[in-house]
User: Fold this.
Amino acid sequence: MTTLPTESQKSAQIRFTLNGEETDVSFAPYKTLLEVLREDLGHTGTKHGCELGECGACAVLLNGKPVLSCLVLALDCGGTEVLTVEGLGEGGNLHPLQDAFADLGAAQCGYCTPAILVTAKALLDLNPHPSRDQIREAISGNLCRCTGYLQIFEAVEAAMLKIADQRKSVTQIPG
Amino acid sequence: MPKEKDSRKTLVDAPRANGDGLRVIGVPRRRVDARAKVTGQTRFADDIFLPRMAHSKLLRSPHPHARIRKIDTSRAGAHPGVYLVLTGKDVPIQYGILPVSQDEQALCVDRVRHVGDPVAAVIAREELTAFEALDLIDVDYEILTTISSPEEALATPQPRIHEYGEEGNIHKLVALEFGNVEEGFAEADEIFEDTFFFQGSTHLAIEQHAAVAIKDPDGKLTIWSSTQTPHYLHRALAKVLEMPAAHIRVIATPNGGGFGGKSDPFNHEIVVAKAALMLDRPVKICLTREEVFYCHRGRHPVLMKFKTGVKKDGAITGMHLQTLIDGGAYGSYGVASTFYAGALQTTTYHIPRYRYQGCRTFTNKPPCGPKRGHGTPQPRFGQEVQLDKIAEKLKIDPADLRLRIVESSNAVTANFFRLGTVNLAECIRRVVKVSDWKEKFRKLPEGRGVGLACSAYLTGAGLPIYWNKMPHSGVQLKFDRSGGISIFCGATEIGQGSDDVLAGIVAEVLGIDTFDIRLFTGDTDLGPVDLGSYSSRVTLMAGNAAFEAAERGKAIIAAAVAEKLEVPKERLRFVDKRVFDSAAPEKGVTFQEAVCLAEARFGTIGTVGSYTPPKSPALYKGGGVGPSPTYSYSAAVVEVAVNRITGWVTVPKIWIAHDIGRALNPTLARGQVEGSVYMGLGEALMEEQEFRRLPKKLSHALVHKFPSILEYKSPTSLDMPEVITELIEEPDPHGPFGAKEVGQGPLLPIMPAVASAVYDAVGVRIDEIPVTPEKIMKALAEKKAGRDPRFGPSHFPHVNWPEPLRVPPPWEGGDGNAVNDVPRRQKSRQEKEQVLAP
Assistant:
């Protein structure tokens, strides 16, 4: 018999892959993936702007696809792969998208940035050479109030070129 | 890997000198806080989690206007997991951003004045528990008459929403006359009278307001908050909590967007501070998006009537502007907004005689306050659209008309604002050129059109919010033996790049890299006061303070190095992390060695710099709102396509020229221009802070029509046009390295340019913001029926304007004083000290 209020009981648990690492977490069953990431796993990189699925600031990749984590129940994420902004880097380096966003002014206040980064990554994973219109479409669910989006488009395009270059240099036959 | 050729892109590892020999300033570069932002490591207020942290939620009034008869919190207090319930009697002391309108209480004691006005707070173990316990608080309200518009406020003096103000529900009346306007009209060849309406809008920063307060280990109060103005919050907390300010620490976390929405001291900040002190545990609050709509402090809805006299050649002979301003339920910055609405008309085009009458009323809606442009976008819209009508009547191209009447650099306006550099003419010429204006205006096929508009904006308010003689910004520098520098400054990073501005200036002066610099900003314990991120003041004021501190440090270091190298200190250069003899560059030391030499010679090195704006010549009462060290200027051309069947407006392209003085970081400057254009477009086409009355049978509620980030329309990536940005750079002597503002000015011309473009496209005038399809359809129907092809207000209600303060303009021998101080009542000495025009 416990005096712990129901809301405080972390009676739900999942095992899932977070940013490439198998992870266990316990939480109150009513919580969304967003809340569990931020409050129970300390991954505060993903943000909230409305918690109603209207602004896109909470976007993460769930099995490679962008989802609004404020609308996903954490209980439904057992056995899935989740990627957040914290997991974008590769081998201790920033992802080309992160470098491009940083260099080209695509992040001003930075609040919408994590969500747009993972959404752009999903786009480039699916389509390595998107047109400007395809980039617009892909991030049309992410609201930004600072940049006016133009430097974001340019950053995605710059990253796209860098990734293509990296792939070329990997596949180039030496000598 | 091929090197990128686009000169706008960053050259992070290859800094180069630009035309002026500057290596940091003017070079597009990665901002100092970029890496933290793209890795998600920037700590916003709601990202703070502390052991034993409790969560707070506010109970907000469902009624727009009511007396609180009784509050019973016993059920909520007994709910499992609830630690504390607060009501107004726990924090009754009134506060407010302006000394003249300290009309808010953290939790309402006697009365609620808008739907959303907080009346109680629950602090609980979990956020959900706090939410649930709100439903357990019983409030007995006595409903009062709701006032929903300024017209209603004028007609309904009782009940008063506030027991202060001019009279009834009129909060503030302003009447100023600079020269005899009737004489001006008598001299005119043509008189134009136009009425416009500009709807309210909100900031919609993606980050919701959040704050965390603790009783720190010492026993003093610390609060982290998403505030743009930590210093003003600091003062409000000291007042309401009745604590010495020295025992309170306010840390402004980086804001996830501010735009003026986070510049007031807020109910929720005071509540968590009080709760943290009472419980001796951390207390956090984060507002829901709906609550942010009710917090508001956004763009005042303004009804405007412009009467302007012009000569045949376009010269203005006189202007009379009346404004009726919807203030919402509290004062906020509203008195300043009322003055701002009359201030900047004279800073773009020469106006020899000017009369301004402004009326702000209270209404039972969320309070309005400062939103990007603060009180100036509304009259700028009216002024620019009227100029478009004037140009058409006089048969002069709108660009040419403006070029004939632009103000000059260093002029003093009729209302005694001293201008700095004025490159508005160059902005107009540039934007005309790059947009092919001459080939398009009145020449595009039916349904397509272009519009041109201009604007000006302050580079920092010339006076502080509360009267004092102290600097507006201070910077302290610590010079470390490691060769690194620490910058301490109260300036607040809200996304605009203030941290990068400070670092860039110091790096340039000392010849180091911005990466060698650590910043400690927005913390009232660590850094000297900076008044806050509002009125586009930080680049100029904190920037000048940083420059002064850096130059002082440079002088100390130079003295030590000069002695060591036996070289006159005037010959020393600080470049590329070295300090060397310009006559023999190989003779030098590293910057790190130089600092150590200086420390050995002089002791610990620390310098300060500060900035106070120059005194303004506007000495009359009310002249404190509008002065600035210098002003930025913008000219924009907007191209639209209007569908005649649906009224739908698309905007394929915008060209904008901005007189920035100097772009300290061109990447950031471009971002500010594009962000301003984006936000202006949102206001022009879709953003509306609209309210509706619920049927009296159901309730008396006056509710926000769409308090959600989905239904309150803002532009998405699909809506943003191509934007061509032209930065006009003539360094202004008032700014650090010549810089002027860029965060607000480029927003202002967009709304009038859109309206004028719609007229060019389909021949209808929408004299209102936003320009919506419904309004265009109605105007097209009017046009088809042979009536005035216009949608907009036709009536400006009668207001009992007071006798105006008469201030002869400079060219009539005026000295900036009024010749008739209108005594309304005996002012107490305290009031005199406090009533500084904000």
